[in-house]
Amino acid sequence: MKTYQKGFNSLITLFFLTIISPLFSQDKQEINGNIYPYSVLKEVPFHQITLDSTDKFWYSKLLLVQKKTLPFLFSIAESQGKIDNFKVIGGKTKGKITLNNASDSDVYKLIEAASYTLQHHYDKSLDLYLDTLIEYISSAQLPDGYLNTQYTLPDSHEFSPDLNVLHARRFGYGIKDRWKSTLVKWPYAYSQLYCLGHLLEAAVTHFRATGKTNFLSVGVKAANHLLVQFDKDKIEAYADHPQVEIGLLKLYEVTQDKQYLDLADLFTRYVKFGRPKDIRLSENSKPLHDQREAFSHCVRTGYIYTSGTDVVRAKGSKDLEIALQSIWQNVVSKKMYIHGGVGNGTPFEQHGFDFDLPILNTYSESCANIAQGQWNHSLNLLYGNGKYADIVEWEMYNGALSGFGEDGITFLYANKLNLDTSHRIDYHSGVRQSFLFCCPAKLPGFIAGISRWIYAFNEEAFVVNQYVSSSTSFDINEEPVKVRQISKMPWIPETILVFEKIPTSIKFLKFRLPSWSGYQTKPIPEGPYYYENIPFVKPLVTLNNKTLNYTIEDGYIVIQNQNLGSLDSLKINFDMPVRRIYSDTTIVANRGRIALSRGPLLYSLEGVDHNFDILKLVLPANQGITPSFNGNQVVLNGNGKIGSLLVKFKAIPYYSWQNRGIHDLCTLIIEDETLILNEKKSILKMNTDG
Length: 690
Hints:
By secondary structure, the protein is an alpha+beta fold. The strands form three sheets. Strands 3, 10, 16, 17, 18, 19, 20, 21, 22 and 23 form a ten-stranded antiparallel sheet that branches. A seven-stranded antiparallel sheet has the order 2-6-7-8-15-11-12. Strands 1-4-5-9-14-13 form a six-stranded mixed sheet.
């Protein structure tokens, strides 16, 4: 009876989406629906925001993604057989299935990124290409909703690959291994839920961007298959890479079908973090609601912490909330690098032990850093506190963005801090390369989907979390909101908000007060890094050129709504000095070293700009540093010492390192030679207790 009821409910949802959804307003349903009743803020969905074409930072990167990155990566997906796999399964071509690690997910992530770009810059040929891809994917979906090209055909099928290859022996293949992932045989039959999660997330993004239901219907059918296949007992025994939880929650947002929320809740709570080779299995083998520290694979954890936070937003689950607050404190205060990266080089891409953050070993995968941005965005919505949006911004401009090459076709997997030129061989060790797996598939969507982190609201307030030139138009309580933001970030600390319409029911306007403005003593709130002692200069806020008074609450500039409209213009000017960032002495590897920052940007020295060994540069504590424009970015100029020799240096934004060839990199600069640890002796603790 239980399975029948699930199936019946699922048919109703599918009928609703395929027949009725083109006729109803998804905007009003998402904005005014009470899908996250325990959340202080609601997200303004990306499809109700348009990046401004005058933006010289994010909009230009979005166009690069659409015009160069996506065609390049789709061509790789085609050449590697990742798209042909769907065509083979769907009977549209003949050939052998090509085995790659979670290859379906790469195609889904690229569709998601492409869908984001269509919202901001419509491209008819790209739109039609996505429809073609979706047709291939739909043709590969089985009647019961199952969809994964690696686990669909029988072993003996003429299109099945050689099953003696390492990939097949390690990960399994074919219908016999469908939904068979367990820790006993891990990673055998691995990544099916991971791929499906990216399918759901891409399907919802495509629906929101285009209004079409062709891909969303595929996602609903796949999710309904899960409702039949998985119950609590099956989930507790299952082991897979998390991501399906985020996908189910996205599907819940557009359908408001609580079956998807409930299933996401179960997967989130009972996900199998603890892989056989992980450290501290005593902690990461517990259900999520019983965990208190971050251990295991850094991308896996970031995804599940995000879905857990959204479950709390939807259900008010106190046990999950307590766990996630403890874990957040553990990550941010003890396990996060100065650029927002996570993963200290412990084997198998894990979080390490507290304060064990060696410089050379840092792993800091691009996907893991993006996941930290996603998680802190959800925390910002849950609590309405600007400190979480501060971390989102830090990831946006540093730890996540650095993975994307300025040419649009080269990528980093790991984001390093200090490097010489030895042992630089691939994207793991500090070389930007062209490839398609994991991070290159994720980074385009991070950039093209940046608008989803800009605005939020509730019944009383309109909130600006990120300073990116853009426009938004939506309804609150049946009243229209129309606002345009003109921002000069991250180079010039000025933002203008032009208000066309703001409902009279909105009592407050809230603008995040960035930590880098001096409001906070730390670039990463509650982290182990702190700014030098520079006085806080309150931002100047003017309305139609008249100075406004305001209060500061929970990391926001709070202004009473003054019946704004008719193109009223509100300008905010922040203080943006160059700042030195110091580390808590508990981080042994950073003793005697500092980092440089200006606004939301971390800075680095690169060997190509210098004729001396930048890794031996000493920057005295009293030495001044001057910002200046160099082309389309601000660089930092100053004097330092190599021994007794005075030398001039130039620091570039960290995100742009290794775009001019392989050169030395120095982000953590020596300030006090007597305190520094020899980097070559920075050894990881390899405690495998538990």
